Amino acid sequence: MCSNDFICFYDWIECRLIRRIDVNVKNVYWADSGDLVAIVSDSSFYVLKYNRDVVSSYFDSGSSVDEQGVEDAFELLHEVNDRARTGIWVGDCFIYTNSSWRLNYCVGGEVTTLFHLDRPMYLLGYLANQSRVYLIDKDFNVMGYTLLLSLIEYKTLVMRGDLDRANQILPTIPPEQFNSVARFLESRGMLEDALEVATDPDYKFDLAIQLGRLEIAKEIATKAQSESKWKQLGELAMSSGQFELAETCLLHGMDLSGLLLFYSSIGDAQGILKLVSLAKEQGKNNVAFLCLFMLGKLEECIQLLIDSNRIPEAALMARSYLPSKVSEIVTIWRDDLNKVNKKAAESLADPEEYPNLFDDWEVSLSLEAETGKNRCNYPPAELYPIYAQKSTTNLLENFKSMQIDENKDPTENGQHVHEEIAGNEENHGQEAVVEEDSSSSNGVVFVSKADEEELGAQDENTSPVKLEVKDESTLPEELEAKDENTSPS
């Protein structure tokens, strides 16, 4: 008995209420076994299992039945959000037509579309000996569609957990249906069995990736020669620690970004150098630039920017890393900018023409010459913690603030202070008067004003010299040989 709001199931023999279910019911379909029932509503249908033994035990116990019936009489197996217009049961398979004019069947909660109908049709029945399901339209035209009984039996046995019998039926299923079987097995969480049954390469590749079966996936990718498959396999191989396979996959898939991450992570300088050529061939100048920059090949970085018509960026990079190249690039920039705006081109300053506009220009050139010696030396990755501490070092400031020691006391004109003082003594026959600041713990030594003027006469651009020494033992020998009675001026 049913209404728009509920349905009641009764025992036919004694008319006892078995269960009341509150649902909007449009139709009810019982399986031939009497254990499964499909309750169809306006927007979905429900597949329930009737627990016959539970109901019998409840009635045999003599317990009273309330208005809701036996609580565990039915077990909800599946809810399918599809409106079934007509339906029949074949074993544990529910075949139905829906409001979208499709012929579907449902096994284990998985819905498979058999055919797309061109008009509304209604199910008549299923002939097992012909493996065909028959439908009729409103004009009484009868149509038959193939639905393999072996396929239904196989899925039914899998649902019941009888895998041995299911495997015996599998060879009777046509190979063109194997992918359908594999998808059914995948929906049941049986990925290994689905991989063995599947025949479609793309689907089989996806299953192999899910299971981590990299060798099978590699075979499929080799045959397909698909970049997307190689990239997907390369990512999985890298996460699994199979670096050789990962490199092979990334190379076949031309995954330049992945290769950059891979080579830089393992510290493979040769691999990064090889990646430069690949990136240039593929037109991936951004990857090529990063590779060259990590290798310390600054000249090639700048040339790549010029070749890519990024001349302003090349000039700015040269100003930061290769100041000796700035004049050359400014000339190229002017020639290129002349084609667009001559006034703007003339406003570009060349450090060779206007060195006063570039702060610490001479120091930058000296620093470039000093640091360029070790630029392309690649220390082992195990020394990274040592070099990581130097990442925030300001080389320019350090170079400007270098302390003068007894072996090398560089000044702006590249000479030694004690050599200048000795030279002044020989040329002018005058003694350099030295004053030591007694209040300084570092022993600061000043050159007298007379000698300062003589030094200034040699080089007008040379500023008065201030020499700092750690102790008296570091004084030049010429100063130690001075008359002990010489008083400070």
Automatic annotation (TrEMBL):
Q: Which residues form the COPA/B TPR domain?
A: 154-334
Gene3D superfamilies for this protein: 1.25.40.470
What keywords is this UniProt entry annotated with?
Cytoplasm, Cytoplasmic vesicle, ER-Golgi transport, Golgi apparatus, Membrane, Protein transport, Repeat, Transport, WD repeat
A GO molecular-function descriptor = structural molecule activity
Q: Which residues form the COPA/B second beta-propeller domain?
A: 2-137
Q: Where does this polypeptide localize? A: Cytoplasmic vesicle, COPI-coated vesicle membrane; Golgi apparatus membrane
**Domain of life the protein comes from:** Eukaryota
Give the GO cellular component terms, alphabetically: COPI-coated vesicle membrane; Golgi membrane; membrane coat
One GO process term, biological-process aspect: vesicle-mediated transport
Q: Does the keyword Membrane apply?
A: yes
Keyword Acetylation found: no
Tell me the segments the record calls region Disordered. Answer: 425-489
The membrane-topology field of this record reads: Peripheral membrane protein
- Predominantly, its location class is membrane
Q: Which family does it belong to?
A: Belongs to the WD repeat COPB2 family.
Q: What is this protein called?
A: Uncharacterized protein
